[in-house]
Amino acid sequence: MIVDYIDTHKQEYGIEPICRVLTAHRCKIAPSTYYDVCVRRRQPSKGQVRDEELKVEIARVHRENYSVYGARKVWLQCHREGIGLHGRTTDGRPRPRGSPPRQDQTHHDR
Asked: How does pLDDT run across 19-31, given as a tens digit for each residue?
């Protein structure tokens, strides 16, 4: 309710001055609280939606190949299946749960 009020009047008065006046009248709200609520309301971007779709596909390809494929082979398999991944896309994604570390993340004691 308070956030809606701020949304309605922010163009005219600004967010921080509104928060100061509300706080002075025993209705405490920090500007950071307002911004946090706005972030939670925001719809995911196209890139975020695409990343979620790719995570599912990458995990599927990894799982279907006995969970032994590394980033390079997952990328190649996705490419063969027509899944549009760019360059090192599989390297930048979090690993599927239970998958081994990528080659550049392993540590060898020699």
From this structure: 999 999 999 999 9
What distance in Å separates the CA atoms of residue 38 and residue 36, rounded to the nearest whole number? Answer: 5
pTM reported for the whole predicted model: 0.48
Three-state secondary-structure class, residue 96? coil
Amino acid at 58: I
| Residue with tokens 């995990």, as numbered in its chain | 59
Q: Give the separation between CA 94 and CA 2, rounded to whole angstroms.
A: 37
- pLDDT band of residue 6 (cuts 50, 70, 90) is very high
User: How buried is 107 (Cβ within 10 angstroms: 0-12 exposed, 13-18 middle, 19+ buried)?
Assistant: exposed
* 99 against 10, higher pLDDT: 10
Q: Which residue has the higher pLDDT, 90 or 55?
A: 55
| Rounded distance between C-alpha atoms, residue 54 and residue 40, angstroms | 23
Could you give the count of Cα atoms lying within 13 Å of 14 in the half-sphere of its Cβ?
Answer: 4
What is the distance between the alpha carbons of residues 15 and 8, in angstroms, rounded to a whole number?
10
